[in-house]
Amino acid sequence: MAKSHVEAVYVKVSCCTELVMVSVSPCAYRHRYIFADELYLRSGCPVTWIQTYMYDFIYPVYECQDKDNNNAYMLKNNVVSEQALLFQTELYFPPRDIRYGPQKIPLECSASR
């Protein structure tokens, strides 16, 4: 049975009108190591660049837009104002250790137009 506590995963999100970049530290709370193949943007987009102390997801905003079962795009872009867009997605973390349940971490970033 999976434990109900949430692992602290350190995430940084940045974006512009063309790109979304999500950086994740492989070192989580309580010194648990996260492997690159345990992380996906919700639509199944894998890590694009593995660094020693950081995993990066770097995708154009028009990629990683596979539709889910409800026909909603995984990377949503909402017009906040005439000057700004809001991008929303989720980081999916299904750990190898089956004692811990999968996590979905909501992410968002705003970009000037």
UniProtKB/TrEMBL annotation:
Query: One GO CC term of this entry?
Result: extracellular region
Instruction: Return the InterPro entries for the record.
Output: PLAC1_fam
Q: Which residues form a coiled coil?
A: none
What superkingdom does the record give? Eukaryota
Q: Which UniProt keywords apply?
A: Secreted, Signal
The entry's family comment says: Belongs to the PLAC1 family.
PANTHER family associated with the record: OOCYTE-SECRETED PROTEIN 2, PLACENTA-SPECIFIC PROTEIN 1
Protein name per UniProt: Oocyte-secreted protein 2-like
Native organism: Bison bison bison (North American plains bison)
Name the gene that codes for it: LOC104991328
